[in-house]
Structures are given as structure tokens and as C-alpha cells.
Amino acid sequence: MEEAKLRISDKAPKGLQKFFYTDVYLVALVAVVFFTWYTKEIFWGFLVGSVLAGTALIVVDDFKPMLPVALYAPAMFAMKDPTEYFICLTGAIPLVIGLVFHIFYYRPERKRMRMLIPQLLIAAAMLAGGAGVISKENYLGTLAYTLMLGFLPLIFYLLFALYGKEERGFASIGKYTAKVFTWYGILIGMEIITLYVVNKPPFELWGRGFVIDAGWSIDNNLATVLLLASPMGFYLALTEKQKVLYTVLGIINFGFTVLTFSRGGILFGTIMAVITAVYAMIKCKGRAKLKIVIPVAVVAAAILAVYFANMSELNAYISRLANLEDKTISGRDKLYAEAIECFRNNPVFGAGMGFDGEYYAQPEGMYFYWFHSTLFQIIGSTGAVGIVAFAIFYAVRYGIVFRRINRNVFAQFALLSFLGFEGYSMMDTGTFIPYPIMVMAMLLTLAVERTNETVALTPPDKRGLYYGET
Fold first, then answer.
1. 2 occurs within a structural domain
2. Helix/strand number for the chain, H first, E second
3. How many domains does the chain have?
4. Does residue 52 lie within any of the structural domains?
5. What is the pLDDT of residue 167?
6. Whole-number CA gyration radius for the chain
């Protein structure tokens, strides 16, 4: 007990510690990341951000304040190849110092980590992919990426699982994760809008000629992140006092999904926006419901008014955007058929992550072949071994999500995030982008896992809508 009292986290001012759980801290990081991305001043961005994060690592015995750092950091890079700026990463030295200090100074907690084995299984399946048929050159060409995809989400999962603490009297992991995700959507939206303002593309080129490319990520991947993030605003509208604010932020995040002009993003973003908004309105009780209903109704009315005022022009534009004259699935049908053929040729291990096929042109020096669908990527790249590994992975993930979903409101909105994410990933590449997408999905799963534990420990007479959140 005496040793615990000597901990820095016990001596540090509570106001300083609480700061790292507030929206102010998250907005400050969003501002740092955005201006770093816009100005390309990587050194100064990393320096300011790492001083903030490094301080949190020293004064708080909890790893949750690193969640926004882990997710927002890639958005600093406005270039596809940041290697020429590696010297600028010396600005992150305070963060590295804080990270080393935290890991060795504060004790990890032994907790059950249900996603550990499933993630190791899919990592092994991907590494074994193509065994017996893939060339050494193609296998080694994608090995670094495959290792990232298999083990990077696991590293983040272990750090947050071991060092994340719930009993410090600050924000719970569910509420904190929701806030981090919501502001992540705002950060991405700021970058998207800036690209429109700077490039000034004519409207007829939006989504057809002018493609959103933030450097660190492109339109489809930005839409995937937004699909994971957007429902969290409505969750906060239910559980926080600032219901109008978070309702508006949730609506805006779904709106940013449309601005990516990713066709799959627009499709699933629209579907999930309707489902999420309706569900939030149903769940909210009493007069507080109006604080969610009114903003949603105003936005819905505005969208309908604009549509009916410009119906013919918008219908023509939507038809061009959807490319309705194309009877294929944007060429994906050929990729899907190719994936099935890869499975037939090597049903046990598939063609491998480094398969060199006919219908997708890989970037120079990298052999990772995108089948543009989670299902067909698993079938074509990893064969039966991958099918079994991913089946276990998904069974465990959704076993966590559904475990106490009737009493865990956070899990209910996490499910909405996953539905949009998984649905879109059936026609794109989201589940095979290691960072930040798969890290984000893994940490969302961890947040549900921990909130389930809180639900289980709460007496039955204390359980309710906002259960475990205060």
C-alpha cells in the first residue's frame, strides 16, 4: 500500500489527469494532427503531440489516453511515402520516453484476452498462405505487410488490454472509445473538406475524376474508418448530457462518409445512418428524446428538400456515380472468380497473400493481391486453413459483442459500427488494412470485452440504460 502511494499517478494533480479523458484533450490532438497534415511540418507535429501524450503516460496509470494517439497518428502524413520524413520522427522522442517509462513503471493487470489466440491463428494462416505454390520472390515481397497485418493489431491489443485501467475514477473505456472514434471522424472530415477547398474540383468531377486522397489514406479506406466511427456519436448522445452536440457530430460523421464519394461507403453509410439514428431515437427515453429527434429531423428534411428541388440533376448524377450501365461489379466479379480458382488450385493454403494475378495491378515492389472482398480474400489467399482461422476469429469477436448485448448499450452501438464495417469490407479491402483500420477494429472489440466485464460485476438493481457509464 505504501508503495502504491508513492506512485507518480497518486501524486499528480487530479485535474491534470482528468484532462487526458476530456474532449479538450481529444480536440487538441485533432488540431495538432490536422495542422501537421496540412503544413507537412512532421517534426513539430510529432513534438507537440508526443509531449502531450508523453505527459499522460507518466502521470496517469492507465493506457486509455494513448487510444487517440494510436489512431490519429497516421493522419499526420499527407504523402504516400513518408520515408523521406523519417528524420522528422525524432520529434516523437518524448512519446517514446513516456512509453518506456509507463511500461516498466506501472504494473500491467492480468485480464482475460479473448482475441489473443484468434488473432494469432489468422496471422499464422496468412503466413502459411500459398504454401507449395507461391514463388519465393512473391512471398518475400509481401512478407512485411503480412506480418503487420497479423501482428500489429495484436501488439496494440496487448498493450491496451494489459495497461488499460478502469478503476481510476475517470472515463470508462466504452465512453472514452466512443469519444475518440467520434473525434476521429471529425479529423478525417476536416482533411476531406480541405482537399475539396484546396483543389476546387467542379461538381461533375466529384467521385468521377477527382478522387479523395489524403496521402496516408484514400477514399475507400477513409470511408471504412468513418463507418466504424460514426455510430459512436449517437451512443454518446444517449449517454452524455450534451445530447444535441453528439447527435450533430454523429450526423456529420455519416455525412463525411458521403463526401468520400466511395460508392460502397455511400451505400453502407446511408444504410447505417438511418439504422443508427432510428435506434438511438428509440432507445432514448423521456423529453431528452427530442434532443436527438429534432437534429435528425431537421437534417432529414434538409436532405429531402435539396433532393426534390434538384431531382433530375441529382438522379442523373447518382446514375453516373453508380455506373448503372456497367453490368459487372466494377470488375470485382472477375476478381471473385479468380479467388475461387485460386482456392481450387490449392484448397488447403490458397494462393498466398503475395499471389500475382491477372485482374489487379499491384504497386511496384509489393505483391499483395487485393480480391476486394473479405470473403474472397480469405478463400483465395489462405484457403481452408484461413477459412477455419477466420471463422474462429469472427466467432470469438461476435461472441464478445453479443455476450451481454441486452444490458450493454456500448456493445449495441459497437455492433452497428461493425455491421457497416463488415458489410462494406465484403466489397472492398478494409479487413486487410492493418493500420489504422484493423487496429481500430481490434481496439473496439477490446472496449466491448471490458465493458462486458463491468456489466457482469454490476448488481442487478443498478443495471439500466446508462449502466456502467458513470
1. yes
2. 21, 0
3. 1
4. yes
5. 62
6. 23
Closest Cα partner for 128 from 349, 313, 339, 338?
A: 349
The cell for 199 is 483543389
Rounding to the nearest 10 degrees, give the CA dihedral for residues 85, 87, 89, 92.
Answer: -160
Count Cβ atoms within 10 A of the Cβ of residue 150 and give its class: 0-12 exposed, 13-18 middle, 19 or more buried. Answer: buried
pTM strictly above 0.85: yes
Q: How far apart are CA 31 and CA 470, in angstroms?
A: 28
Rounded Cα–Cα distance for residues 377 and 353 (Å): 8
pLDDT of residue 313: 78
C-alpha cell belonging to residue 293: 429527434
Residue 51 domain-assigned (yes or no): yes
Q: Kindly state whether residue 266 falls inside one of the protein's structural domains.
A: no
Give the domain range for residue 20.
1-107
Ranges 24-28, 46-50, 77-81, 384-388: which has the least confidence: 77-81
> For 39, how many CA atoms within 13 A lie in the half-sphere containing its CB?
12
| Distance between start and end Cα atoms, the chain | 26
Cell numbers given for 106: 506501472
